[in-house]
# Entry
Amino acid sequence: MRLHHLGPDFPEALVYELLEGNVVFLCGAGVSAPQLPNFRDLVLNVYARLGEERTPAEDHAFQASRYEEVLGALSRRLVRSEDVIDAAAAELQVPANPDTAHHDVILRLSRDQVGRPIIVTTNFDTLFERSLMVSHSAAFATEESAAGQDIPAPGSARFTGVVHIHGRLTDVELNLSKTELVLTSAQYGEAYLRAGWAARFLFDLMRCRTLVLVGYTANDAPVRYILNVLEGDRERFTDLRRVYALSSSNGDPRAAAAPWQALAVEPLLFEPEGGNPYGPLWSSLEGLANLVENPDVRRREMIAAIVSGPVFETTDHDIRTLKWALGARADLFEHFITRCEDAAWFDTLAVEIRAFGERARAWMLARWFARGWDDRVRYLTAIKHLGRGSQELSDAVFRELDQNRPQDATWEKAWRLLAEAAAAASHDSLRDYQLHHRLNRGPVVESDLGRLVNAIGPHLTIEAPFRDEDPSEHPNQLSDIARFSMESQHQEFLQDVLASLVGNAENILRLLERASQRLACQLRTARDAELIGEVRDVTDFGVPSVVNHPQNQHRRGFVPLTVLITSAVPMAAQANLEGTKRVIDGWRAEPFNLTTRLWMHALTHQALFTADEAIDALATSSEVAFWSFALEFVAIVRARIAQASGESVQRLVRRLLVEGPQRYADQEQSADGIDWQDRARDRDIWVRLTGIGEHVVLPQEAETLLHEIRERRTYLSREIDERDLFRTWSSGVRAVRGRTAQIVSAQPSERLTIADRLEESSDIEDREGWGEYCREDPVGAYAALRSRPLEMGVVARWATWLEIIPSRANMTSPEWLRVIQEAVGLLGEADDEIVNVLVGPLARITEHARQLQLALPANWWDRLWQAAEGEPEVDWGDDVETYDRVINSTGGSLAEALLQAISSQRENGDDVNAADLHRLQRMIVSTTYSGEMARGACVRYLSFVFSVSHEITLNHLRPFISADNDEGRRLRGVLVEYNSFVADAEISFADLILQGVRESRQKDISAANAASHLVRAVVASFDEPNVARGISPQQARQTLREAAADIRVGALKIMTNWLEEAPVDNRAAAWTDLYGPTFQAIWPRDRSYLSNAVSKDVFSLATAAGAAFDAAVEALLPYVSTFEDDWLSLHDLERNNAELATRFPVAALRLVWAACGPPCKGRTSDIAAILDAIAAANPALVIDRRMHKLRLLAVSH
# Structure
């Protein structure tokens, strides 16, 4: 927390301790400056007052800033040693009108839990008492002053006031007498060493108070004596509090912090201000005092100042300050809510808000929403939070809506629907699984039937608008605000519920009633969400068929619930006919399309309705039912009309003949002149009359009308196809695959012409025909290519064919190999213009030439490289790794091809061809994009390239790798992430390897690969000490210190992996001789390098040591810090029936305790087996309290 732009950054922990009254300020001479001298000036003034000159010994101590030794030496050589004390006392007399502003501020800060001042000072002056005299009274100041060996014990009831641990001077005005002073080295030795009363006081103080040093430098004598004493105690007593020091940075924060950090003190540095170097310190302390004295006011000021602006304009310091200000104070969130405008603050403070519990979080969000019901940003924020499902948040929003209604009706509806959706959105797969289990086991209770239909049925879902939608400033409908839909969860395992006890006779009608009620309820919700209107019904359109049908595949919404209902109908009718009919009557009474369609489906069941009842019901149905649902209409006709009476059939046909010709008569013709109304009318009549005509003889009038329609619409002169019955038809999801039939059936000389024509087709499968033909019949495709001269007009066809050759590298048929060789010969004689276009696929063929058994023309590589150098640079973006770019580039392919050719020469025992060496150099020095990619390939195989030519590698390739530019950094990344080096290459490139490791920001396997260079070099130095290596253990350790954290973790993973690759019987020796010494040699010993990730991998490394597990634990235990994860993995120790815990129970317990002991709060299913093995192997450990506490982390499944 920074209270002045140049002031110290006070840690939140210190501020909390100040508020709790747990901080004591230890004050030095700087607090009384400039009224009184500091220690250095005091020494000079004492010498001047006494008229003495420094001896060489005294001057040596003075130059070393050991002022207590200067005065000690002076007092020893004076006849009257008290003269030194008297002179110092004279120099430190309180001025006549002292300025106690600094002392006032510190007294406001340094107070105990009940607000009593408590200051500890090494100063002799009584300026703190003078400050108390002004703020209280002279008597109070006198009573609250203690000095010398009469000081009160820390933590006792007397521990208040001003404590002079080095003594106090006389103050006549306050009636304070002088006490023994600690000024010289001898007196310091008595207080801190021989008698030790000052050391004991400070040790006790540090156990009950946090200490803040002010007015000192790190070299001051009091600081050295005090902190050296405390540092020794800190090693033995873990309950010592923290020590902070307020100090100037003097323009170099790092240098200023170092001497304090060496004394285990956390420096709080301020920047000097021009003309008033200590102004930022005292201004900050005064602000801190204001905060401590009236924290709520300051908290509110901080909150208002920070959250009134957007998050992106704040600094990390601002956010830390805000989090502190809000702290654990739920009451201050009301203030936050009234000031906050940026929704991003809720994400920034998510952890802090969640700490108050779901109910408080809900209240906070709802109050913020209510401050701007018509604010689109608040609504979108609510979608994000409410979409996760929260009954508490839903209730809180409803409360705010009731107390403070939005003025706009559309916004009010939107918020109420959002709150309703939140209440229903929470989904628990475990609950669904338990429900499934109960339904199968029985008995089936009513509440479980309700849960079942709720789980299967849809829920209102509200999502943010698409980004390209232009939001309306004043919404007139819900779709202007957000996207509303009805969605169902994935409930596949509930689809077979009718085969469970739910489908029994005593339960099926209840299920049907519950499902029907749920359907009607959710349809009303959909209507409220404007998904069902006068013209449009999204819910109906989203259900292709109310029965199980392939067209329902990939559909959610109301589909699962309607299919459940229609599947239950015949079972319910068999169990309770009258009850089922009552449910069906309810469907007909509902004003929704889906319920109407369900009623129409019910008419197809013979058990529920006679044929005449079904046909008559259809004939007398509403206009919507009769004319809108062709699928259900035809289904009824097909199922029932053959058994219906002639009269019923006549009534049905009569309605068709009367109403059909009038369909869409009231609709205006479209402006484009297309008679869509007439076409739709004819289609409606055609599908219904055709369906009827399939089973009965149509009356002559109907037959005539149907004939006229077929004459007008020749495309309807056919039987009904299933897709005619659906408003939309899906052919399913399938991969695009080129259609080759036309190409295959043509003569070879005609195939390219057909391919050209197909490429202009609107059908993507036609357009992909040539590519698919090349894959299906590459030999035939080559024959087609040869039917035309090799010229620019067919280059695109050649490119497609050439691109498939590398994927056919394993084809060994003589005909195929002949064709490729012939093609290479032909293309080798092609014009440069053609080669320039085809260089990409030709380079990839060259890379696979050895597999394809190709004999390449003598100038083949040179021509391709010349063409490659003309290729433009490719913009890969930031997400594609360097080597991925290389292997997908022309330059990279040609480089790999050249390196393969050189490798083949060496495998055959031949010297490397001089021309190939020239090509290698030409490629490496090329400044083109292809040259850059080629260098990437050469660096990938740097050890090999180095073995081919030291001169080319060191003189030409190395400068590119070492360059301080983007390419240099990328090449160094390839260098360390893909290579393994033999000793001579490691020596030559050690500096670049180390630099590449330091620069690497890779993670996981790539980070481990980078770290492996350090591990390999040091392991090799222990394995073969007489073989020189390029990387020393000291360099490896320093590089690990400077590298990213993921590289250090990678080093641990590499050691663990290599250990585990060794035979089990050899692992102990490998640990003892190689990996244990390597770890000790390279791993940084600083505590700052400990982390949760490091701890987990050190744990794994210890378990990889096999029979040396005991020794490994002993070596590695200091590097294991407590695991921080919520779920702990101890599998490395638990595997193989906790074998290591059985063989080494004491070491296993030590390791697990270090990782999982307090304050670890995680849980694990691995620990029980480990503890059981420890207890079985060493029964004496059963009573070990570590075992008891570790048992609390166990989770059993």
Notes: The radius of gyration is 43 Å. The chain has 63 helices and nine strands. The mean pLDDT is 90.
